[in-house]
Sequence to fold (460 residues):
Amino acid sequence: MNAISHKIIRETLLERIQSGEWELGELIPNEEELAEEFGCARTTVNRALRALAEEGIVIRKRKGGTRVCELPKREAKFEIPIVRQQVEATGAVYRHKIVCRESKKPPISVSTRLHLGADEKALYLEALHLADERPFAFEMRWVNPAAVPHIEEEKFDTISVNEWLIKSVPFSSGDVSFSAVNADCDIADALDVTEGSALFLVDRTTWYDQSFITTLKLYYNQGFKFYSKL
Amino acid sequence: MNAISHKIIRETLLERIQSGEWELGELIPNEEELAEEFGCARTTVNRALRALAEEGIVIRKRKGGTRVCELPKREAKFEIPIVRQQVEATGAVYRHKIVCRESKKPPISVSTRLHLGADEKALYLEALHLADERPFAFEMRWVNPAAVPHIEEEKFDTISVNEWLIKSVPFSSGDVSFSAVNADCDIADALDVTEGSALFLVDRTTWYDQSFITTLKLYYNQGFKFYSKL
DNA sequence: TAGTGGTCTAGACCACTCA
DNA sequence: GAGTGGTCTAGACCACTAT
Fold:
């Protein structure tokens, strides 16, 4: 292909920015000028600049032109993986065990999150994720039974709750928080660590449309880390 | 505008996928067919589908066509913010204090990370980040002085080390890990918490081109959380 | 080999926003 | 008001890959 690709343009511009050829906050040439320089259509330059804008490298404004970002933001993307995949990625054999399963009235903090009435019951599950039969993570989860009625029929002996939910309600939204907590007595017991150990906690709530599906706390065993590139 | 926008197409297709009109893994119509259905150019459909592919909703293959993703991945994007911004976002007043600053031989774990010779010195800094004069986070950092020579002249009385580095080396790459640790004696002391408290640790290393810039451990005080949308 | 997505072009009009 | 990016079109050729 003779034509100049948007990838090459993006890379070239990125190098100029990184090398300091353009200062932070400085206006860079407009699309038409760059198109002329690269000898390509404006559309192609547009695509390259749009990519840089999505990455937070430049800021674009109509009439205002395109500027190098003043305070480049650093973003880390974490995939929220299925625990099974995390375990298998380490080369270990994955297994999970439902420790507790009952239908009961959730505490207020949960019933508000799941948008349940004060007297409505929800499904409560505790599960232990094992890597080579050693505790890897402990999960405490509430499910809104109205959102996924068929869950009553599922045993979860071959598939984890999370994987089942992903398949049943594949494109839900949600929010998530990461934090550090000291293991209380129960969790220390489940994960076979001493009480007070620092554990990595992922707290996640998901919903689809207006209907809340599940909220869970996932306690990873000691030493667990989330990695990412910047 | 009469023309159908790529955003509307993206939304429409997303609704069909979410509603289950197309199964997981199912082949969806090709670009030309969709263009005809929406009465627009193929380019426009292409842009909508490309967006869905970037979001991990569909998978596209030449000749293979476009399919709904089998196992939709969940991604969480975290901005790695400047601590000052984190503090100010809570409404508190930010201040930081350099607790320690010296040039010395780093431990091997650091000198390998920074690609330093065994006998080379590096700049070591400890800093405390305060929110309304209460400890918010404690930072232990090594800087490769060869990568940023002017750092010797900087006092860091008005600007934090991180902000200074971002301005000096704006578009560096890096990696980062999140984990949970029990506070050791020194850190507990610095953050004014009891020893053994669970702390959220961000461990980050950045470089530019081939040259390593800095590696740091940032211990957030108890109760700190990272939030994100899924 | 044939079918699909990937990309580029040249031109057009629009929408926003700065001065 | 004028300059910039935002987007759409219609057409073309290419690159990959499933069959």
Residues 1, 3, 30-32, 42-43, 46, 49-50, 60-66 of chain A lie near DNA strand D (CB under 10 Å from a C1'). Chain A has a mean pLDDT of 91. DSSP finds seven helices and eleven strands in chain A.
